[in-house]
Specification:
The protein has 118 residues and is an all-beta fold. It is 0% helix and 52% strand. Strands 2, 4, 5, 6, 9, 10 and 11 form a seven-stranded mixed sheet that branches.
Length: 118
């Protein structure tokens, strides 16, 4: 059974940092692309970043969002810095084909809330 479990969310002040984790079980995280998405209230789910099976990464804001992976523990991370109120959302990790589209990912975690507020 494939499971993805996010953790590391919480409340942070503007300008702060958070590191989200996505623990992957039931498949080898470096055999699939693992993406990060977020969804704010009233908005569609949007792509944040991705790491492919070969370790290549990209994100929507390379200066603030960094995706990485620990192959030994099968955990994928999203490091976020200089957070802004507009980054407030539920953050999800997902495994599937390398893509920017949520529909290309077959497996999803339950999400973790990130709130940026003073």
């Amino acid at each position: 059974q494939v499971q993805l479990v996010e953790s590391g969310g919480g409340q942070v002040q503007p300008g702060g940092s958070l590191k989200l984790s996505c623990a992957v079980s039931g498949l080898t995280s470096n055999a699939y692309a693992v993406g990060w998405f977020r969804q704010a209230p009233g908005k569609e789910r949007e792509f944040v970043g991705i790491i492919n099976a070969y370790g290549g990464t990209t994100s929507t804001d390379a200066d603030r969002f960094t995706v990485s992976r620990d192959n030994a523990s099968n955990v994928v991370y999203l490091q976020m810095t200089s957070l802004e109120a507009e980054d407030t959302a539920v953050y999800y990790c997902a495994a599937g084909r390398p893509s920017f589209r949520a529909t290309d990912f077959s497996y999803w975690g339950q999400g973790t809330q990130v709130t940026v507020s003073s």
